[in-house]
Design brief:
Layout (H helix, E strand, L loop, with lengths): L15 H17 L2 H6 L34 E2 L6 E7 L4 H9 L1 H9 L3 E7 L5 H14 L4 H8 L13 H10 L4 H8 L2 H16 L7 E4 L2 E4 L4 H15 L2
Parallel strand pairs: 2-3
Antiparallel strand pairs: 1-3, 2-4, 4-5
Helix pairs in contact: 5-6, 5-7, 5-8, 5-9
Length: 244
């Protein structure tokens, strides 16, 4: 896999959290209005024959962060799939483990069918142990085994305790998965792997992702390990839109 470089996030990109708060405040200001002003002014009544204005729904806020890079070992599914799913993940996050067990298999079926590309961004929401686990998964990706390593770290829908994420444990896991342990050990401490993980951490911070799991499905934010049905519906809607 080619060494990752830090990705510049466009200056116009507004963090998802800020967008959501702004939309909520807008709705409150429009719907709630000023109670005092409303009490002082009589309600205006439109003539019965007055034209009714069409209600225009606000356009769904989307964030297109999919890279669609050939040879990206932290991705699954065709590079030109009509829909992308970007997964912001932390290997110390229990809800990430639940999502990996309950929902990820369904998403991978869409990818196998050619309808979805999944791109993982392992970030640091829980400290140094999270970073080291992310570096280990990235190092496994250097041998085209990211998905297998990722699944092993979340085996049974459970996150591994910190004492099972030491360097010795991470290297041992690589051996259990049949990887070249000597190469894995070298990659685990390589500046290229560290830079690749840091680029993902920086990307998440730039768009306001500080907790996990978080997702961009077809560019639409989904926060938390929502039920599988939520992702199925979002994927179907994004696929229909992409296919016109």
């Amino acid at each position: 896999m080619p060494a990752a470089s830090a990705r510049r996030v466009p200056a116009w990109l507004v963090p998802a959290a800020i967008v959501l708060v702004a939309l909520v405040l807008l709705v409150v200001s429009v719907v709630g209005g000023d109670d005092e002003g409303a009490a002082q002014q009589p309600a205006a009544t439109a003539p019965s024959d007055a034209p009714v204005a069409d209600v225009v729904e606000p356009e769904q806020q989307t964030l297109e962060m999919a890279r669609r890079e050939e040879g990206d070992a932290l991705a699954y599914g065709p590079v030109d799939a009509p829909v992308t799913l970007v997964v912001y993940n932390d290997f110390q996050c229990p809800f990430c483990a639940v999502w990996a067990k309950d929902t990820e298999p369904t998403m991978m079926e869409y990818a196998d069918a050619g309808d979805l590309r999944i791109e993982w961004r392992d970030i640091n929401a829980f400290g140094p142990v999270s970073v080291r686990a992310a570096q280990a998964a990235y190092a496994a990706g250097e041998q085209d085994a990211y998905v297998e390593y990722h699944h092993a770290l979340f085996e049974g829908g459970e996150k591994r305790p910190a004492d099972e994420l030491t360097d010795e444990a991470l290297i041992a896991l690589a051996g259990e998965l049949g990887l070249d342990v000597e190469r894995f050990t070298a990659d685990l401490d390589s500046p290229e792997v560290a830079a690749g993980v840091q680029a993902n951490v920086d990307e998440a911070a730039a768009i306001g992702v500080y907790s996990t799991p978080a997702f961009l499905l077809g560019g639409t934010p989904i926060l938390g390990a929502q039920p599988t049905e939520v992702f199925v519906q979002a994927h179907e809607e994004a696929l229909a839109k992409a296919q016109g």
